[in-house]
Amino acid sequence: MSIQDTVIRAAGLTKSFGDVLAADGVTFSVGRGEVLGLLGPNGAGKTTVVKMLTTLIPIDDGTATVAGFDVTSEPESVRRVIGLAGQAAAVDEKLTARENLELFSRLHKLPRQRRRSRIDELLGRFDMASFADRPASTYSGGQRRRLDIVAALVADPLALFLDEPTTGLDPRSRAEVWDSIRALAATGTAILLTTQYLDEADQLADQILVIDRGQTVAGGTPDRLKADVGRDVLEVHVSTDADLARARELVAALPGASVDLNRRQLDVPISSGAAQSLDLLRRLQDTGVTIDDFQLRRPTLDDVFLALTGSSTTPVEEIQQ
Ligand SMILES: Nc1ncnc2c1ncn2[C@@H]1O[C@H](COP(=O)(O)OP(=O)(O)OP(=O)(O)O)[C@@H](O)[C@H]1O
Ligand SMILES: [Mg+2]
User: Fold this and answer.
1) Is the pLDDT of residue 226 over 70?
2) Domains of the chain and any CATH numbers
3) Which residues lie at CB < 5 A from ion ligand 2?
4) Which end of the chain has fewer CB within 10 Å, C or N?
5) Picking from 89-103, 194-208, 249-263, which range would have the lowest pLDDT averaged per residue?
6) CA-based angle 8:58:47, to the nearest 5?
7) Does residue 20 have its Cβ closer than 6 Å to ligand 1?
């Protein structure tokens, strides 16, 4: 990415609230058409970072620019080039989507003659025509979230900030919001997205920054993060306790192998892919183990997050070597 293509740049962003260090030296950049996923649990500092970058709260230390404008010294210029869909909805429940968007377009000083066409274009692009003319109070969660995002887009921002855009949505609504976000990135908008959902970051983000209690825990592409944490895992399910005992004996010597007694499941890290998996499955069969089911799975971002922050574990007994 060349310098000119960088839209959002944060260097050493730091913020305290009393004793709480909510952000501690957070550094990243987001280019045109790129999605950065800021991933972390409750209280990690995600909203704090978004608020600093969108000029809502002052920065204690560090610097940030959006489209070359300094967030601290040129806040008005920054506000002109950004869109924000925050965690708290900004839309008026009593108004329809169309009326809400009309209001936002006036706030953003869109010329009167352009307002109507811009709003129609957005309602069409995000498939909102069927509910655009009834009050937002009647919307489903997914419809409301889409209105939040579209409201942030009225002024055609260069940089869009989405704070947990799919929290509380059902899987179908989430998928719809994901599609909208992908479509936006494809038009060149730089997007900073915060999420607690590891699969969401994996699905949408070009780069992921994992933060926890204000600290950067890890960063990189989704694939890179996954590669850092682990190899593929062969998951094998067997039928009976006797099968499990036999299988257990066979994999005991393999590094990192674990067995889940309750689920009659073996997890074996695999370093050389299909050949090694087939070999192991064949050896299990040769010793008379009946295999119910198996799968080779890539490490997920859940694995990444757990490995990095250790904030939760699965109850799996490690095989003693
Ligand atoms: N105005 C404030 N006054 C005092 N403490 C605050 C304030 N804003 C945030 N904090 C604290 O800063 C830390 C980070 O909060 P932040 O809202 O950035 O987390 P988050 O990652 O957005 O969490 P969530 O996923 O729950 O939205 C938390 O400990 C929070 O209590
Ligand atoms: Mg938050």
Assistant:
1) yes
2) 3-221 (3.40.50.300), 231-298 (3.30.70.100)
3) 46-47
4) C
5) 249-263
6) 65
7) yes
